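Anyone else keep sequences and structure tokens together like this?

Example one:
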Amino acid sequence: MPADRNAPIEIDPPRGGFDRENAVAALRSAGLPQGLASRAPGPFGPTARAVAALEALADAVDLGLLAADRLHGVLLDELSGGASFAIPRLAPEHRRLLAAFQIVVTADAFARGIAALGATASVSGSLDLDGLVDLLDAELTPQDRAGRVLRLAEAFARLPRPAATPDAPADLAAVRSVGAFFALLRGAVLEIGRSTGLRPLVAALDARTVRVAGRPYRGLEVRDPAADRAGLLAVRHEDIVGNDEYVQAGLRLARDVAAFDLERGRNPKRLNPVLFALGPPGSGKTATAHAVGNYFLDFCAERGVPARFLVVRRTDWASSYQNASAANLVRLFREEVHGFPGVCGAYWPDIDTAFASRDSAELRQEEKQNLAAVFAVFDGTLLPRDGKWFLICDANNLHMDEATISRIAQNPFRVEGPTRPEHFVKLMRGVLLRDVRPFLPQDDAAWERIGQEAARLGLSGRNVESACGNVRGRVQDFDYPEAYFRADATERERLLAGLGRPVDEATIVAQLAELAAFRHDAEERDERERFEREVEAMVRQLNASRAAVQRAGAPDDGDA
């Protein structure tokens, strides 16, 4: 039976380690325990921090040996095509991939170990190591490679360092120097993986789901979930109030895209990848899109599917010179969205501001190029509508021409945000103010009246968020006692629980009324200013018409 190339590669250390005895022996043989003891002497030998660092390094070396062994087995299985008595021979590049994977896993694990000791190594530059290629020698066994790396680490740590200070005692500096070596070595190995014959094999590894000690890897690098959430707000779909149909459509689209078959390059379903929302400011369009993005990444992570979610900002593509904006748009969608080796979602807020009407006489060439680029995205001529990606976009108003609207709004939703009393109660009591809930009214009837007042005032979700910020400010209007600064985390929570100031129903209603009055005044002022501008324009037009009539009726100076 052929090997399942979609099966995740799970590398979990067994209890007691994989080959920890040899890992400890390699540390001793490299002289690291003696070296740390001499550079960071304690009353009974190495300091506690140095001993803990040695333990962390032994665990890291052991995990690197395990990673190389497990990946070696996967390569043999795939090269043999499944169950077979034939034992394939790995090519030198395969063995270099194993070596690189062993080194980066060891370096990553040691970095985590010393970070827990407060000894994170900060490095810059690259490692100029003549013997680096020798460390990736295809003929070296993983055990021999680990020994060579540790000997180099000890030699690196012996290099002269700045004198110890109260903020950086000798044992801390010694541990950091070993950590710096592994960080520099890791960077050099990653560079080799990107720029040599290893690159195709690293890309093949990137396409697989790999977890080492529970941590996902993308090729030779730990996949940082936070990096995939760059630009996303920390909001969940359970926190979205109102917009139920829009939320459910986004979640369904996210699940359908996650089902894309990466090996066959197709999705079992034929999807419309664009979700479009129209709604006034403050109706929750942005929060909903970010919630769908977080759901998408969580859903994919739980199932081992490589995924990314991007927030498209104007600064990502807009430029001051002609045609560059459209080129950046094309690059963004081709490389960052569809070129990502996994499934991808994207959110483009306020898309109406990016595209002027083609009927406008003031339409610049750059805007024409932008329209052509976005039409290509939505028509499927730039990116195949293959179910590998999806795009959420929204607008406050439809200021685009019919051709643009027809392409973007193929799956349109009108988003209004919270509108009913129960919406406002859930938004305020259950989401925005849940962290200070003990200091709020506990009577359900009081909250029902608060919700009714918010609905009557016609507030948006953004207005309510501002009011809740003011309410929280009243609850937290206190000074910290001196005991707070000397207390541990548990005691601090106990102290804070008694410091908040209760807020009653009348105060919350007053905050809502104040926001509504401010909004009303702002709208009236904006309306007056718009009226004055229109009047001024009409007066100028009338004056121009009178002047034209007078000039047309005046005798020509050349007539006599």
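And example two:
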Amino acid sequence: MKYINILLISALTVITFSCKEEAPKQETAEKVEVKQWQPEDTRSLTAAASKRGLLKKSEDATEGYVLFSPSVGVKTYIMNMEGNIVHQWDGEINTMHSYLQENGNLFRLERDIDFPTFAAGGQAGIIREYDWEGNKLWEFELADDDELLHHDFEVMPNGNILAISYHAKTPEQAIAAGRKPESLGKAGIWPDKIIEIKPNRPNGGEIVWEWHMWDHLVQDVDSTKANYGVIADNPRKIDINVHTEELRVMPKEQIEQMKQMGGATSNATFDNQNSDITHTNAIAYNETLDQIVISVPHYNEIFVIDHSTTTEEAKGSTGGKWGHGGDLLYRWGNPHNYGRGTKDDQMLFGQHDVKWIPEGYPGEGNIMVFNNDILHPGNKAPSVFAAVMAAQSPDPQIAIGDFGNYSAVYELSPPEDSDGSYALPENGVFGPEKPTWEYMAPDKYSFYSAFVSGAHRMKNGNTFITSGAKGRFFMVNPENEIVWDYLQPYYDQYALPDGSPPQPVGPFIFGQFRATHFDADFTAFDGKALEPISPQPEPFIFKMPPPPPTVEKDSMQ
């Protein structure tokens, strides 16, 4: 959802929308009807006022523990399957999520409190490693005017860290690279790069490998500028002008209002609202293939790149095990981006949390991705949040029943050529045509998280899913039946020094970037008691505000 700030709503408003499966009205986002909120026949995007904690545990639920870090806080928890916290780490600053290692150490992605420049969800800047007792072992920071770690990282088998970073480019640089000038603000653009960090404990690290999107662009709008070419002839390149015709600009007053309500980050300005052109939000590494997969939601695609290259080879189009240098080995989700499909062929919509299924697990070698914001058939608005933005109103209780978007979890099995490379037919698209497996709610529309979220396959064939907007963790069996269900109840009300939340929060007070299930025999738990701590963390009790008043449609014109 690159066109909007996805949290354009009041900090205490619960968004609800009809779960009736009916044909959407054929209206553009600029003609959205605003209606009185009706409590009956609705479902909440946030579940803020719902009963929270353990909702269901059947005999098919996989025993073990869940690792999670509530988005508006500094703590990381390990929870048993009864919903009891059995261990916690007390950090100093806000964290998005964490990775638990077999030795019991914890790596956390944390938010630098005063980084400049960047203003999009997922801001971080710091990676820290802690031991089981919470002692800090290592810290790496990248948070300056030009670069910022954000969203996700991956601990590699050799102990190095793969991380995502913005790399700011000025308007002049962007125009020279072929970006349409009319799509640029004064802040320029922030394409992503991938870096591999070799830790130098206790502080810092050496960047031993890197890959830049900037080195693999194509554009077809200006033959006098760099990267000019036919998009369809360059399917392994990244079109620098994807979605530029769909960019929307908000007035300064609205941006300031959003910041006050927790709907925009503290660095948001009029000039940088469309600078985050890719918003890469997940990264994973496959040691067997020596490949990296990333999720690029503003392109509605996942990309696979070759890690076997040198840094120099990663700048070009030759070299590495597969001979393509740093060009894309594989992409999936929106072939229209590389000129080989129409918008009707789009399969991914603002997706998150891409990863390979590990060896020895059902579906091993396949790719799993959380597909966040799938369009209701006939919906002309890019998302329910775009409809809120179009209303230009602090009251988000619009006719969201007419925008019945939904979410799904996909398992993909990319077709291969005889040499093991990803198959790309001449003038065709990267497959598969459809997922090997998918999960969506039986009624389709009651499972929906328009942002964050994730999923991973478990060793016994169950799948663990995080529906992030409402802080819901649940587990489904191979027959897609829910066998365990939990709504996390923690909201620490953490604030930055200026009083603002650490990232856009709005009413998503229980929001969760991602959670991870570990089997009970995971090595990190050897010798650990893992009994419920006392006292348990205090849950936050949300009080439902009164319904907003009716806003007449004519008042929006």
